[in-house]
UniProtKB/TrEMBL annotation:
Pfam families: CBS, Peptidase_M50. The chain crosses the membrane at residues 59-80, 92-111, 150-174, 210-233, 254-274, 280-298. Residues 401-428 form the PLD phosphodiesterase domain. Zn(2+) binds at residues 109, 113, 236. GO terms for cellular component: plasma membrane. This is Putative zinc metalloprotease Rip3. It is a multi-pass membrane protein. One of its GO terms (molecular function) is metal ion binding. The active site is at residue 110. Residues 316-373 form the CBS domain. It is found in: Cell membrane.
C-alpha cells in the first residue's frame, strides 16, 4: 500500500495479500496494492513504523535486496490453521502451503517493482512481508512520468507472467472436463453450473492436490492484477494514472487529480462494503486506507514542490546551540532552560556533531531515575538520531533523509562545523520568506531600512 525516512524517500507497495477464506463451501479473495506515504508530516516520504522495523526476521538477501518477514505473519498462519483444523492435519498443512504460495506471489510482485526501479538507478532498502501483504521500500520514486509508469506497472506485470505460466501448465496437465468446470467457475464460459461441475470444484478446492494448488494461485494472481490496477491512488493503478497525467500536466496537479479520483473510488468501495449484508469490514478498511494515504501523499507532493529549488541554508535557523557530549544531566537541565529548541545537537570535543538529544528523551531519562552522572553522549540514541544535513544541500533531499524522532535537525557546513538548525515545523514559513526575499526589491524606504538592519 512514504514522510519520515531512515534515509528512504518512498515506500512502494503495502500490497495486501489475496487471501482465501473458507466458510464451509465458499471461497473468497481480497487484495490491494499501493505505495504508502505517511500523511502530512514534514518529513521524508516513507518509512515503516518502528514497530514493523524492530520485529522482523530476515529471510535472506535476494538480488541484493534484504527480505524480511514481520512477526505478525505468524498470526496469518495461526488463523489459516484454525480455519481448517477440523479437516485434519493433512488439510491444515495444505492450507498453510497455499498461504505460503500466495505470499510467494506477493513477494515476486514486490521484486518486480524493485527490479524496475533498479533500471533507473533507484535501489530498494528492503522488502517486508506482513500478514496483509508486502512492502518494498524504494529509496526514492522516479519523477520522470514514463519511468514511474514502468515501476508502478512492473508489480502487476509479474503477476500476469505467473498467471500465464500457471495457465499453460494447467492446460497441459489437467483433465479437460475439470478445465471446463474451472472456466465456468471463473465466469469465462457462460454456462449454468451443474451439480457435477459444483462437486468437481468442491473436490478441487477442498481436497489437497497439485491441481487445486495451481488453480488457486492462478486465480490469486488474476485477482491481484485486476484489483491492483483500479485507478485508486496510491495503488499501483492510481500511480499509473498519475504517471499518464504527468506526461501532459505538471506533477503536482497530476497528483491532486489522481488522489481525488482515488477518494471517489474509496467512497464507492466503502459504500458498497457498508451496504453488504453483513457489512464487509476488510473492504471498508481498504477504502479508508486508500483515501487516507492518497490524500496524504498529495499533501506530501505539495510540500516537496513548494520547497523546490531551495537549500537547507536558506531556510535554517541560524542557531548554533549545542551540548558537549560530556555534560551530565544536572548541567543539561540548567542549560536547556535558556534554549528554545526541543532537540539540541550533541557535539564532541572536536566540535563534530555526534547525535541529537531531545527534551523528551532527557525528561524520560530523569523520570526513570537514571544516574545523575550520565552524560549527553551516553543518552544519545543513535538509532533515533539523524543528521546532520549540509547547509548547501537541496531542501527536498534533506527532507527525504530526516528521521522521524526529531523535528529539529543540525545543519553543518562543508567543514562539518555546526552552522544552524533545520526546523521542520517552521520550514514552510521560512521558505516563503526566502522566496519573497528573492523577488525584485521595491523602493519602499521602510523595506529598505529593514533589509539594512538585517
Amino acid at each position: 500500500m512514504p514522510t519520515r525516512l531512515n534515509g528512504l524517500e518512498t515506500l512502494h507497495g503495502a500490497d495486501l495479500l489475496p487471501y482465501r477464506v473458507r466458510h464451509r463451501r465458499s471461497i473468497g479473495y481480497g487484495r490491494i496494492s499501493a505505495y504508502r506515504l505517511n500523511p502530512y508530516f514534514l518529513c521524508s516520504e516513507s518509512d515503516l513504523p518502528e514497530s514493523l522495523l524492530n520485529y522482523r526476521l530476515k529471510l535472506g538477501t535476494y538480488a541484493g535486496i534484504p527480505l524480511f518477514v514481520h512477526w505478525s505473519f505468524s498470526l496469518a498462519v495461526i488463523y489459516v490453521s484454525l480455519q481448517v483444523m477440523h479437516a485434519g492435519p493433512q488439510q491444515m498443512l495444505f492450507s498453510i502451503a497455499q498461504l505460503f504460495g500466495v505470499f510467494l506471489c506477493v513477494t515476486l510482485h514486490e521484486y518486480g517493482h524493485a527490479m524496475a526501479a533498479r533500471m533507473y538507478g533507484i535501489s530498494t532498502a528492503d522488502i517486508t512481508l506482513l500478514p496483509i501483504g508486502g512492502v518494498a521500500r524504494l529509496k526514492k520514486m522516479p519523477r520522470i512520468p514514463w519511468q514511474e509508469f514502468i515501476v508502478a506497472i512492473a508489480g502487476p506485470a509479474v503477476n500476469i507472467v505467473i498467471a500465464i505460466l500457471l495457465a499453460i501448465t494447467l492446460a497441459i496437465l489437467v483433465d479437460p472436463a475439470l478445465l471446463r468446470a474451472i472456466g465456468t467457475y471463473a465466469m469465462v464460459l457462460q454456462e449454468p453450473m451443474t451439480d457435477e461441475t459444483r462437486d468437481m470444484l468442491l473436490d478441487l478446492f477442498n481436497q489437497p492436490s497439485w491441481t487445486g494448488y495451481g488453480v488457486l494461485l492462478l486465480i490469486v494472481n488474476l485477482v491481484l492484477v485486476a484489483f491492483n490496477m483500479i485507478p485508486a491512488f496510491p495503488m499501483d493503478g492510481g500511480r499509473v494514472f498519475r504517471a499518464v497525467l504527468a506526461m501532459s500536466i505538471n506533477y503536482r496537479t497530476a497528483t491532486r487529480i489522481a488522489s481525488r479520483v482515488g477518494v471517489v473510488i474509496a467512497v464507492l468501495m466503502g459504500f458498497f462494503a457498508i451496504q453488504s449484508d453483513p457489512p464487509l469490514l476488510f473492504p471498508l478498511f481498504i477504502a479508508a486506507f486508500i483515501a487516507y494515504s492518497g490524500l496524504g501523499e498529495a499533501r506530501q507532493v505539495d510540500l516537496m514542490e513548494s520547497v523546490s529549488g531551495l537549500t537547507v541554508g536558506q531556510v535554517m535557523l541560524r542557531d548554533t546551540s549545542a551540548f558537549s557530549m560530556d555534560l551530565n544531566i544536572s548541567e543539561l537541565q540548567r542549560r536547556w532552560q535558556s534554549i528554545p529548541l526541543t532537540s539540541v545537537p550533541v557535539v564532541s570535543i572536536a566540535g563534530t556533531v555526534v547525535g541529537v538529544l531531545s527534551l523528551r528523551d532527557l525528561t524520560t531519562q530523569i523520570e526513570s531515575g537514571v544516574d545523575p552522572s550520565t552524560t549527553a553522549g551516553e543518552m544519545v540514541d543513535h538509532r533515533k538520531s539523524f543528521g546532520p544535513v549540509r547547509a548547501e544541500q537541496a531542501l527536498q533531499e534533506a527532507i527525504a533523509q530526516v528521521g522521524k524522532h526529531h523535528r529539529q535537525i543540525p545543519v553543518v557546513d562543508e567543514s562539518g562545523a555546526l552552522v544552524g538548525t533545520l526546523d521542520l515545523d517552521t520550514m514552510i514559513q521560512r521558505s516563503a520568506i526566502q522566496i519573497s526575499s528573492d523577488a525584485p526589491a521595491n523602493n519602499d524606504p521602510a523595506t529598505t531600512h529593514f533589509d539594512q538592519r538585517s
